[in-house]
UniProtKB/TrEMBL annotation:
<keyword id="KW-0967">Endosome</keyword>
<comment type="function">
    <text>May regulate the synthesis and function of lysosomes and of highly specialized organelles, such as melanosomes and platelet dense granules.</text>
</comment>
<dbReference type="GO" id="GO:0031084">
    <property type="term" value="C:BLOC-2 complex"/>
</dbReference>
<comment type="subunit">
    <text>Component of the biogenesis of lysosome-related organelles complex-2 (or BLOC2) composed of HPS3, HPS5 and HPS6. Interacts with HPS5 and HPS3. Interacts with biogenesis of lysosome-related organelles complex-1 (BLOC1). Interacts with AP-3 complex.</text>
</comment>
<dbReference type="InterPro" id="IPR046823">
    <property type="entry name" value="HPS6_N"/>
</dbReference>
<dbReference type="InterPro" id="IPR017218">
    <property type="entry name" value="BLOC-2_complex_Hps6_subunit"/>
</dbReference>
<dbReference type="GO" id="GO:0005783">
    <property type="term" value="C:endoplasmic reticulum"/>
</dbReference>
<dbReference type="GO" id="GO:0072657">
    <property type="term" value="P:protein localization to membrane"/>
</dbReference>
<feature type="domain" description="BLOC-2 complex member HPS6 N-terminal">
    <location>
        <begin position="1"/>
        <end position="385"/>
    </location>
</feature>
<dbReference type="GO" id="GO:0032418">
    <property type="term" value="P:lysosome localization"/>
</dbReference>
<dbReference type="GO" id="GO:0007596">
    <property type="term" value="P:blood coagulation"/>
</dbReference>
<protein>
    <recommendedName>
        <fullName>Hermansky-Pudlak syndrome 6 protein homolog</fullName>
    </recommendedName>
</protein>
<dbReference type="Pfam" id="PF15702">
    <property type="entry name" value="HPS6"/>
</dbReference>
<dbReference type="InterPro" id="IPR046822">
    <property type="entry name" value="HPS6_C"/>
</dbReference>
<keyword id="KW-0256">Endoplasmic reticulum</keyword>
<keyword id="KW-0963">Cytoplasm</keyword>
<keyword id="KW-0492">Microsome</keyword>
Length: 802
């Protein structure tokens, strides 16, 4: 059943007190602030300082008197005004920049009266820059005089603090003000926005640019503050419970959170809007993002038109999983899950305000009729935008109702972004429960058979619903989110992992990487074997999903990784030392087209791509991946890097680790190391290992030819001894072991014990002593030269040829 977006007028404002003045202010001032009371009966309009009178108007639906106030020139008007969530009577609070706060209420008598006046900054010298009301708490950000202690930035950049006081009714005409609690010391200038449960501290135009990319979410009910950098995708949670005396120095808070102070440009946001789901932000490109209360940030969708400068008006709101955005005179409705544009309407005015829905339990009968939509206020009246089914449609069958209800249930239960449809449930074998229930309604399956078939699935659903209830109640949230992520990853691994399922899996790994990896660890049944390697007992179907890449024409969106790359990235962050064993294990799995032996990129290159560019990736991890790949080019590349680093032992071990099935690769590594042996003497100590690496079919002539090719050029004539400080040249004595090994025939090539093993193993005998003939006395007169060379007391046996 297709829904249609409807825009229906609820009132022309004539039943509000002061209707004429209300229309006048809405039409004349586009920058007027509009607030709605928790019961929906009162409208508050506050004009900016310096605007014409009146600056404040509170209109009431019915016959009650309105509140209208004006401040003459020279007397500042309030900085902001808010309704207080008091169920007994309507009340509002006005706050000035000087720190003055006034509480007004409408009691039993006619009209409004002042209930309490107080100073938020009694010490003086402070200036209030932002105010918000959160569950009976008045929260403000004030600027104080900067201290002299060391700062992260300029002294004035961290001269603010965020404080709050409780506001509670006391009888018919009293107000109880709690003591002042300081949430943040030494913080930058923050804007304050409040939803029903959370307070958002957002950067402003005056925030120091060094922290202009950071925002905070304070959840009083949980006693926590979430520090978020949306552009970095980082978030950190800290305890902040003022009841227990918690407070934070903003500079100390940031110093303890790694990565948040990375140089980034400030957030360029046109409009902020708090919602029950989190904080919506609209940038100047027309993209709407949602910063969720748990710290995650996701893109909701992109508008058809982008805001034009800061002067353009924009308003954001949500209802029934739908995002409503009023940009100028255009109303766009987008699906919160998929970002798809559902409706686009052109309004008759560009000065439209979205009103917050009434608080639960405080609606009157008229508000109950408009429940489930958003209210729009303009000078033309009060309108409601919502979804309605067109009239005249046939009532759907029971089977159709089953699939439609199942769509809503699975959409709430799942983290996937795209919207489910009944057609997808009917033809997708993943969701068996609605198909079985539809078969029962058609009389095909008995209820007992259904219970037997779905017993395990129903048990999982019940456990999942109980887990969600614990999370909603705030019980042991950290363990609850971990368990929920494990359930979701296990469920996704049973799907085809294409499209939305892959996007969803990436989201889970980004939000809770440890829990997601734990689920994969159990699915693959990974265990270390004690030798630094991994083994797996998972069935081939699971490995097929892990190793499978993307099909042609079905490339994932930017930033979305296939499962193998996702696991490599997660391991690189959590346990980098297990990444090479995991890739080596993955290379032993699979079949044709799985990614391990298919025509695509080899697994080691897919893992290297996750490590980043060559200039930034870890050299140690890159070496391990190259050596463990078993690919000749990769192993040669790794050995070349080891040679450049002069890690001779490891380079030789890499060559010796290759079995007899890789003779060509061993030969190439030997030639590479032999070239280094010929150039310098730093490999002399590793000569026994080099002999073991020598190919058995290499002849002495070929060895000498290889060495001659790589000998360094001689710049000077050779000398018997090297000059002091220079490296000795290669000698025949060093080559003797290699030459004898290449020339030996039939000698077993066992492990070398020492440099002199060839002498110990030589089976030959010394050469015979040459015969000694008669000594002949040299004639001095005939051979003067020989006489001069003959040592004293010795004679040389020579033959006279003269």
């Amino acid at each position: 059943m297709k829904r249609m977006g409807t825009l229906r007028q609820l009132s022309d404002l004539s039943h509000f007190s002061g209707a004429a003045r209300l229309r006048e202010l809405l039409a004349a001032d586009p920058a007027v602030k509009v607030r709605c009371s928790p019961d929906g009966r009162h409208l508050l309009l506050l004009r900016s300082p310096g605007a014409p009178c009146p600056q404040l108007l509170v209109a009431v639906r019915g016959s009650d008197a309105e509140l209208e106030r004006a401040w003459p020139a020279g007397h500042p008007s309030p900085l902001d005004a808010f309704f207080l969530p008091w169920p007994a009577r309507p009340a509002l609070v006005l706050v000035w920049e000087s720190g003055l706060a006034e509480v007004w209420g409408a009691g039993v008598g006619p009209g409004w009266r002042l209930l309490r006046s107080t100073e938020l900054c009694p010490a003086g010298g402070a200036c209030v820059v932002a105010v918000a009301v959160l569950r009976g708490r008045l929260v403000w950000c004030e600027e104080r005089q900067a201290g002299a202690e060391g700062q992260l930035g300029p002294p004035a950049a961290f001269s603010h603090c965020v404080c709050f006081r409780t506001l509670e009714p006391n009888g018919e005409g009293g107000t109880n003000l709690g003591r002042t609690h300081v949430l943040l010391h030494h913080c930058p200038s923050f804007g304050l926005l409040a939803s029903r449960k959370d307070l958002f501290l957002v950067p402003t135009a005056t925030t120091w640019p060094g922290v202009g990319h950071i925002l905070l979410t304070w959840s009083p009910g949980k006693g926590k503050v979430m520090v978020v950098a949306p552009c970095l995708g980082l978030s950190h949670c800290k305890s902040l419970n003022p009841v227990r005396g918690d407070t934070w120095d903003f500079r100390t808070l940031l110093r303890g959170l790694p990565g948040l102070l990375s140089p980034m440009k400030p957030l360029t946001v046109h409009t902020w809007a708090p919602t029950p789901q989190g904080l919506l932000l609209l940038d100047f490109r027309g993209t709407v993002s949602l910063v969720q209360t748990h710290g995650g940030t996701r893109t909701v969708g992109t508008l058809q038109e982008a805001p034009v400068g800061l002067a353009g008006s924009a308003a954001l709101g949500t209802f029934h999983g739908t995002l409503a955005c009023v940009l100028g005179s255009t109303l766009e409705l987008l699906d919160m899950g998929s970002g798809q544009l559902l409706e686009r309407k052109v309004l008759s005015t560009d000065r439209v305000h979205l009103l917050a829905p009434p608080a639960p339990g405080m609606e009157d009968e008229e508000e109950l009729e408009t429940r489930g939509g958003l209210r729009l206020l303009s000078a033309l009246g009060l309108f409601r935008v919502g979804w309605e089914a067109p009239r005249g449609l046939e009532v759907p069958s029971a089977e159709d109702l089953v699939f439609e209800e199942a769509c809503e249930y699975y959409q709430r239960r799942s983290l996937r972004g795209a919207q489910l449809t009944p057609e997808e449930l009917k033809h997708n074998s993943i969701f068996r429960a609605p198909q079985a229930l539809a078969s029962i309604l058609q009389g095909h399956v008995s209820p007992s058979t259904l219970v037997t078939t779905l017993r395990a699935e129903l048990r999982d659903y019940r456990a999942l619903d109980q887990l969600k209830a614990h999370l909603v109640a705030g019980d042991d949230e950290e363990a609850g989110w971990t368990e929920l992520a494990e359930h979701e990853v296990a469920r996704l691994l049973r799907t085809e992992l294409m499209g939305d399922q892959l996007v969803q899996l990436n989201t889970v790994f980004q939000a809770l990487p440890t829990a997601a990896w734990g689920a994969v660890l159990r699915a693959l049944q990974l265990q270390p074997d004690g030798n630094g390697r991994l083994r797996s007992h998972a069935p081939p179907d699971v490995w097929k999903k892990v190793l499978g890449g993307t099909s042609a024409g079905k490339e994932p969106p930017n930033g979305i990784l296939p499962l193998f790359e996702l696991l490599c990235q997660c391991l690189c962050r959590l346990e980098p030392r297990w990444l090479p064993p995991f890739v080596e294990l993955a290379q032993q799995q699979g079949g044709p087209g799985w990614g391990a032996g298919g025509p695509g990129l080899p697994l080691y290159r897919r893992a290297l791509a996750v490590l980043g560019e060559e200039e930034t990736r870890s050299e140690a991890l890159e070496l391990e991946l190259l050596l463990g790949s078993g690919r000749p080019k990769a192993v040669l590349q790794a050995v070349g890097q080891l040679v450049q680093k002069e890690q001779w032992q490891r380079a030789l071990e890499a060559g010796l680790a290759l079995g007899p099935s890789s003779p060509l690769l061993r030969s190439e590594i030997f030639k590479l190391l032999l070239a280094e042996f010929a150039r310098h003497r730093r490999l002399d100590a590793y000569l026994p290992h080099l002999r073991r690496l020598c190919p058995p079919d290499l002849t002495p002539a070929e060895l000498l030819l290889l060495i001659r090719t790589h000998l360094p050029d001689e710049l000077e004539p050779p000398t018997p001894f090297p000059k002091p400080g220079t490296e000795p040249p290669l000698t025949v004595g060093l080559l003797r072991a290699l030459l004898e090994q290449t020339g030996a025939q039939g000698r077993p090539l066992g492990p070398v014990l020492s440099l002199y093993e060839d002498i110990l193993c030589d089976p030959g005998t010394p050469p015979p002593t040459p015969p000694r003939g008669p000594m002949t006395t040299l004639q001095t007169s005939d051979h003067p030269v020989l006489e001069a060379w003959a040592p004293s007391g010795q004679g040389l046996c020579v033959t006279d040829t003269g």
